[in-house]
Design goal:
The complex is a heterodimer of chains A (about 325) and B (about 525).
Chain A: H1 2-29, H2 34-39, H3 47-57, H4 63-75, H5 90-125, H6 130-144, H7 147-161, H8 180-218, H9 221-228, H10 233-262, H11 265-270, H12 276-285, H13 289-317, H14 319-326
Helix pairs in contact in A: 1-13, 5-6, 5-8, 5-10, 5-13, 6-8, 7-8, 8-10, 10-13, 12-13, 13-14
Chain B: H1 2-17, E1 38-45, H2 60-69, E2 74-76, E3 82-84, E4 87-92, E5 98-103, H3 117-128, H4 137-141, E6 143-150, E7 153-158, H5 164-168, H6 176-179, E8 199-205, E9 209-214, E10 225-232, H7 236-245, E11 250-252, H8 255-261, H9 265-270, E12 271-273, E13 276-277, E14 280-286, H10 296-305, H11 308-316, E15 320-322, H12 345-354, E16 358-359, E17 365-367, E18 370-371, E19 373-379, H13 383-398, E20 402-408, H14 410-418, E21 425-431, H15 439-442, H16 460-470, H17 475-492, E22 495-503, E23 505-508
Parallel strand pairs in B: 1-10, 19-20, 19-21
Antiparallel strand pairs in B: 2-3, 4-5, 5-7, 6-7, 8-9, 9-10, 11-23, 12-23, 13-22, 14-21, 14-22, 15-22, 16-17, 17-18
The chains are: A mainly alpha (about 325), B alpha+beta (about 525).
InterPro entries (chain B): Peptide/Ni-bd, SBP_5, SBP_5_dom
Keywords (chain B): Signal
Protein name (chain B): Peptide-binding protein
Chain lengths: ~325, ~525
């Protein structure tokens, strides 16, 4: 197992390098550059000023020199400074945003899995019943309704019409003066709508996946055997069947890891949540190369780690895989 | 249980989609009340400022916030006339080559240090320093010498008289005692600015808000409103809902929101809407290097075939006016008597026939067997421009011209099309600066790569008039130059000037003291107030 882990970790290095090379090339191929994004259509800018700005950002150097300089710095865990006029270190900008996105997505993820698994199991064990059909309709509503539309609808209803919930942002103005408990309550109120929308949107896929896994497992011989042995239905379903049906879901959990920090542009824009999605979008629009590269590299690294964790947990959960690797 | 949930959701959707909710509330007339200190104005901002050092910023969000924190030597008053700001007064030497600013005494930076001419000299020097990545060096490069003869006097000389120079000193002055000898690009002041303005910086929560609080020692007097809060809300629909829910006090409305969604009794009771011409215009610009548009009669015909009124009504719902030239109606450089080509398709056809374009059997215009067709490019994300392009497309089709529309991402439009002069016609807009100098967009020397006369307009008389206009401080003389330029544009139609939209701000009705003027509503912000009994924040 340790060997396997080590091999996988070493394999990640060329993979990461390849990813950085491709993303670096792709960003540079996009039309426009940071200097242009900052100065376009401004009568105050002359060609000379533009050239001065390009030199300032090091954009006058050949591409491979720029890439190698960047790579050298990243090897020392220095992601450089943002090209935005604030010129702040990229890592500082990312650090500011990660807790928000991570927290929000973690809550949504727990809710998603916490709801989708029982919904899926329930639908499978009550297959073709009215419940099953009702659930199908409900989760597919979540799947079909566009996130932004649902979000705006809920904001209008709960925020404007009823005035129960805040519409956007993370804190009320002046919430920093409140006692700790009230402050958390305020944050919870702000999170209620975004978390509900995020959860509702992805409930369909996961619960349907769980349902079909469960249906497949229930048909297996060992379940029939368990039933034949006279075990209670609850024990059959929750002890024998569920465990096996959960296995593929673990892989999905691993894949969700990079999503936890990636954030979503549409979602964060609508709810005015200062997360990674927003930061990345702004970075791309401003052609802020160091910021975009920083976010992409961290994202790629986490995707690889996520895959690895999924594989490991899969192996831990299913002895056959573990033995297969070692054997 | 689940069925009940589905039911609830359906009911919810039904309730929300019904356009009910016109809670009948009588519009209440509010008196002026008694000015009082206190309360906070919460403004919604689509973008987050990038830096609060205005010298390094080029985005509106940064400049908006910084505008409350810093001052320039001069500023525009409510009638868009230049008046003193940090400068009490100024003299222009009789030959127009030297400007001497007499600075206010006793002005304090937010940290208590006194403002002097040394700060102005520092700001000038750091701006022209090649190591400073700023977009604002150009005007200052015309300066020959800059001196600070004493603590309260600042003098600049120019090689030639330069009228726009005076306005360039409206640039925000930076504190020398905090920045001198340091690398401005790494300064703490980008996140924690210190200025002389009516508001001082309190906090910046990344991606969420910036809070300013009133500066009691401000030389213009203590502002009534205690706090100015910028909330960053990237989506305009969300911002509008925040406005209705009381989360923000002020925003700019779209024409649809202004005309159709804000006429309920409740909205009228809670908010005041304002409307005045924005400092911007939208135009259809022709690539004059393209033989298709080389003949002035063709351009006159195109303008005659486009109903500008229809665009103002269709796109802006009437909340704007027809543009006839590059100036804002009502300002001193604008010639109200200018004669434009009004909508007249018959004249359009006649002009095109004169230029050799004949209607073929299929109704399309042809010359030497070639049909009259071209593409209008516009940028993505501006619904109004796209709609205007569609209206133009329909009108031109009626006289036999086939128009295609291409909508492009901003950077791609600039890099692949405008910079390479690779376009037929562009539907875009310009902001109208308070100084009427047209050099950068219309002078024939500005047709080079990446320069702003991208349509390639060249007219020696216009060049001469632009030069004459910027070399005198005499407003009457300048006015004559700009009036003549407008006549030439009206005849030559290098652009079809389309419309000047209205700015449509809305402010919570508890704020009093707002007096709309040609400069808009924000110019007297420090005089806005909320009567004590209505204060909420």
């Amino acid at each position: 197992m340790l060997n396997y882990l080590l091999k996988r970790l070493i394999m990640m290095i060329p993979l990461l390098l390849g990813i950085t090379l491709i993303t670096f090339a792709v960003i540079r191929l996009a039309p426009g550059e940071p200097v242009q994004a900052q100065t376009a259509m401004s009568p105050k800018i002359t060609a000379e000023t533009r050239q001065r700005l390009r030199e300032y950002y090091g954009l006058d150097k050949p591409l491979h020199v720029q890439y190698l300089t960047w790579l050298g710095r990243v090897a020392r865990l220095d992601f450089g400074r943002s090209f935005a006029p604030d010129n702040r270190p990229v890592l500082d900008k990312i650090k500011e945003r990660i807790p928000v996105t991570l927290g929000l997505n973690l809550i949504a993820l727990v809710l998603e899995f916490g709801l989708a698994i029982p919904i899926g199991v329930f639908a499978a064990t009550h297959r073709d019943s009215l419940y099953d059909k009702g659930i199908t309709l409900f989760v597919f509503l979540g799947f079909a309704v566009p996130t932004f539309w649902l979000a705006l609808l809920l904001m209008y209803f709960f925020g404007v019409k009823l005035g129960w919930l805040p519409i956007s942002g993370l804190h009320s103005l002046g919430s920093d003066r409140l006692p700790a408990l009230a402050r958390y309550l305020d944050l919870a109120k702000h999170l209620l709508l975004p978390v509900s929308v995020a959860t509702f949107g992805s409930l369909a896929g996961l619960s349907r996946y769980m349902r079909s896994n469960m249906l497949e497992v229930i048909r297996q011989d060992y379940i029939t055997t368990a039933r034949a042995k006279g075990l209670a239905e609850r024990t059959v379903i929750y002890r024998h069947a569920l465990r096996n049906a959960l296995l593929p879901v673990i892989t999905l959990l691993g894949f969700s890891l990079p999503g936890l920090i990636g954030g979503s542009v549409i979602f964060e824009t609508i709810f005015a949540i200062p997360g990674m999605g927003q930061l990345f979008y702004q970075g791309v629009m401003a052609r802020d190369y160091p910021l975009v590269m920083g976010i992409l590299v961290i994202g790629a690294f986490l995707t690889l780690i996520g895959n690895l964790l999924a594989d490991i947990s899969y192996a831990l959960a299913d002895p056959r895989i573990r033995h297969g690797q070692e054997g | 249980m689940t069925m009940r949930l589905v039911g609830c959701l359906l009911v919810l959707l039904l309730v929300v989609s019904c356009k009910g909710g016109n809670r009948a509330v009588e519009a209440v007339h509010r008196g002026p009340g008694v000015p009082a200190y206190g309360d906070a104005l919460i403004v919604g901002s689509i973008g987050e400022p990038s830096t609060l050092l205005p010298l390094l910023a080029s985005d509106t969000a940064s400049l908006d916030v910084a505008g409350n924190i810093y001052n320039g030597l001069v500023k525009y008053d409510k009638n868009l006339q230049l008046v003193g700001d940090l400068a009490k007064s100024w003299d222009v030497s009789p030959d127009g080559l030297a400007i001497t600013f007499h600075l206010r005494q006793g002005v304090k930076w937010h940290d208590g240090v006194e403002f002097t001419s040394h700060d102005v000299l520092y700001t000038y020097r750091v701006t022209i320093d090649p190591k400073t990545p700023t977009a604002y060096a150009e005007d200052f490069k015309q300066v020959k010498t800059a001196t600070a003869p004493d603590r309260y006097t600042f003098r600049v000389t120019y090689a030639k008289p330069f009228a726009p120079a005076l306005a360039s000193w409206g640039m925000n002055i930076l504190p020398a005692h905090l920045l001198e000898g340091k690398d401005i690009t790494k300064s703490e002041l980008a996140r924690h600015p210190i200025g002389t303005g009516p508001y001082r910086f309190k906090e910046w929560v990344a991606g969420q808000k910036i809070v300013l609080e009133s500066f009691h020692d401000c030389f213009e007097g203590r502002p009534y409103i205690d706090r100015y809060i910028y909330r960053i809300i990237p989506d305009s629909s969300t911002m509008y809902m925040e406005l209705k829910a009381g989360g923000i006090d002020m925003m700019d409305l779209t024409p649809v929101q202004y005309a159709r969604q804000t006429d309920t009794a409740e909205f009228v009771r809670r908010f005041n809407k304002y409307r005045y011409p924005a400092s911007a215009y939208t135009y259809l610009g022709y690539n004059l290097r393209n033989p298709l548009f080389a003949d002035k009669r063709v351009r006159q015909a195109l303008t005659s075939a486009i109903s500008k009124d229809e665009i103002v009504h269709g796109v802006l719902l009437g909340l704007g006016q027809v543009a006839k030239g590059p100036y804002k109606p009502g300002t001193w450089a604008y010639d109200p008597a200018i004669r434009d080509f009004d909508y007249n398709p018959a004249r359009a056809k006649a002009l095109l026939a004169e230029a050799g374009w004949q209607t073929g059997g299929d109704g399309t215009l042809r010359k030497n067997g070639q049909p009259f067709q071209f593409t209008i490019l516009t940028n993505q994300g501006n619904e109004q421009r796209l709609k205007a392009a569609q209206i133009i497309q329909r009108r031109l089709a009626k006289i036999g011209i086939e128009v295609k529309i291409r909508v492009l991402e901003w950077a791609s439009l600039l890099t692949n099309f405008i910079d390479k002069r690779n376009f037929d016609a562009l539907l875009m807009g310009w902001t109208i600066p308070p100084d009427p100098d047209l050099f950068d967009v219309w002078d024939s020397s500005k047709t080079g790569p990446k320069e702003l006369n991208f349509i390639g307009y060249k007219n020696s008389e216009v060049d001469r008039l632009i030069e004459a206009g910027r070399r005198t401080f005499d407003i009457e003389k300048r006015k004559r130059c700009y009036y003549r330029i407008q006549e030439i544009f009206a005849d030559e139609q290098p652009y079809t000037f389309l419309y000047v939209p209205d700015a449509l701000p809305v402010v919570n009705a508890r704020f009093r003291g707002i007096v709309p003027a040609p400069a808009g509503i924000g110019y007297n912000f420090i005089k806005w107030y909320v009567p004590k009994e209505e204060q909420v924040n």
